[in-house]
Write a structure and sequence with these properties.
single chain, RDD, membrane, mainly alpha, transmembrane, UCP021697
Length: 135
């Protein structure tokens, strides 16, 4: 029995998905992702402080709700849109409603978003069948 040689790692995230290395339709890198997360969380905190005397559970619910709502409507959270990213389904076609909801709920759990593959798709993206691309 011969050993199967390990495949060589891709040169850039998304290469095996047929996506370009840079520019539009390339996989959004971690810096942009964290920036978008900070913007989205900041909005949730501001709304929670303004209307709910900063309740941490309300902040989390606002974050998840805003993530799901804006991803359904414009294929991006507010932070994604500001930083030039969008969520697209791997299979093509429409994003639908269930993908953004699953994605937002898993992001709220934190751990799925921190575990990602060679294409920088977190477990939340893999479960929802999506990828975060640059516009």
């Amino acid at each position: 029995m011969t050993a199967i040689p390990a495949s060589t790692p891709p040169d850039w995230p998304g290469q095996r998905l047929g996506l370009p290395e840079t520019g539009p339709r390339s996989v959004a890198r971690l810096g942009r992702r964290f920036g978008a997360l900070a913007i989205d969380w900041g909005i949730a905190v501001a709304l929670s402080a303004a209307f709910f005397a900063y309740d941490s559970l309300v902040t989390l619910l606002l974050f998840v709700g805003l993530q799901a709502l804006f991803t359904v409507v414009i294929n991006a959270s507010i932070g994604h849109a500001v930083l030039g990213m969008r969520v697209v389904p791997m299979a093509g076609g429409m994003l639908g409603v269930w993908r953004p909801i699953v994605r937002a709920l898993l992001i709220a759990l934190v751990i799925p978003a921190l575990l990602f593959d060679e294409n920088q798709r977190g477990l939340h993206d893999r479960a929802a069948g999506t990828v975060l691309l640059r516009r």
